[in-house]
Write a structure and sequence with these properties.
Belongs to the glycosyltransferase 7 family. The protein is α/β, with parallel strands linked by helices. It has 7 helices and 9 strands, in the order αααβαβαββββααβββ. The strands form 2 sheets. Strands 5-6-3-1-2-9-8 form a 7-stranded mixed beta sheet. A two-stranded antiparallel sheet has the order 4-7. β1, α4 and β2 form a beta-alpha-beta unit. It is globular, with a radius of gyration of 29 Å. The N and C termini lie far apart (86 Å).
Length: 326
């Protein structure tokens, strides 16, 4: 068998032949042979500006409808940054314990803590944020967690804010100061984006520690979502405490931003056995609170400090068998 010594034909494009013969570099050689310090600098600047644009879009919410991310809360643009101090004595003699009952809603917490820290700093409200994280296997008990926050808030605070993690104030005229005259319902029915009945006292409520003690705290019988606020309204009346609400606020139901997404995180609204009938708890509260602190951690979220208290809330199955999911 004979083999031809002829070379296989090679197909050249005109520019390729020219570049090969004249030493002209092809586009593929650009990064390896033409990359200069100035070009690298230019690429870095493009990357930086692109990143800033992305942050701005996510901050203003233009990306909120992006496929796959619509369940996440829209991050509010930060308030003008003020002093990082949270306990500046020149701001006044009172200090607030901002108590947040919490379980698993981390995406909301990442928004809430830095936002509220900046908001209160701008208003020169001395404060400390307590995240009372329920880590047991019982149903969520908002009232008991607020009781725990009251007990664990220390002697350096003299009033509390019972504050939902998914409610952000949008009006700087809202008063978060010491409620000297009586309990102050910041998220009043005419301002709250969802709840408008007259006896509503949920969302955000300020009380002096003396007034909270006079009510014996909140009832520990309410496992699952809802009704603990309605029972607490009756406690305020029983303690002869006058309830105050904001005046002169013209932003209506846009006064607060509600960042909870019910489609992504459904509330536990199940009513079991005697839980189906609403009853006032005349004896329970701080006096029969049973809990255990698993750990206490000082953490910072985007530069905003808070105290996370991981808590086991105890349940008396004979008194409230509905504390179990089953």
């Amino acid at each position: 068998m004979m083999y031809s010594s002829r070379r296989k034909p090679v197909l050249y494009f005109k520019d390729d032949r020219r570049s090969e013969s004249q030493g002209v570099r092809r586009p593929g050689d650009f990064l390896s042979r033409k990359c200069t310090v100035w070009k690298l600098f230019g690429l870095c600047m493009v990357f930086v500006f692109g990143s800033l644009l992305w942050v701005q879009l996510t901050c203003t919410g233009d990306m909120s409808q992006t496929a796959g991310y619509s369940h996440l809360p829209q991050q509010p643009c930060p308030i003008d940054k003020q002093s990082s101090h949270v306990d500046d004595p020149s701001w006044g003699p009172h200090k607030m314990a901002l108590i947040v009952p919490f379980r698993e809603r981390f995406e909301e917490l990442l928004v809430f803590v830095p936002y509220m820290h900046a908001f209160l700093n701008k208003k020169k409200i001395r404060h400390k944020i307590f995240i009372i994280n329920q880590v047991d296997h019982f149903r969520f008990n908002r009232a008991s967690l607020i009781n725990v926050g009251f007990m664990e808030s220390g002697n350096d605070t003299d009033y509390i804010a019972m504050h939902d993690v998914d409610l952000l104030p949008q009006n700087e005229d809202l008063n978060y100061g010491f409620p000297v005259d009586g309990p102050f319902h910041v998220a009043s029915p005419e301002l709250h984006p969802l709840y408008h009945y007259k006896t509503y006292v949920g969302g955000i409520l300020l009380l002096t520690k003396k007034h909270y003690l006079a009510c014996n705290g909140m009832s520990n019988r309410f496992w699952g979502w809802g009704r603990e606020d309605d029972e607490f309204f009756r406690r305020l009346k029983a303690a002869n405490l006058e309830l105050f609400r904001p005046t002169g606020i013209t932003t209506g139901t846009k006064t607060f931003r509600h960042i909870h997404d019910p489609a992504w995180r459904k509330r536990d609204q199940k009513r079991i056995a005697a839980q189906k009938q609403f009853k006032v708890d005349p004896e329970g509260g701080l006096s029969n609170l049973r809990y255990k602190v698993e750990s206490r951690k000082e953490v910072s979220i985007s530069g905003a400090p808070c105290t996370v208290i991981n808590t086991f809330v105890e349940c008396d199955l004979n008194q409230t068998p509905w504390c179990q999911f089953s």
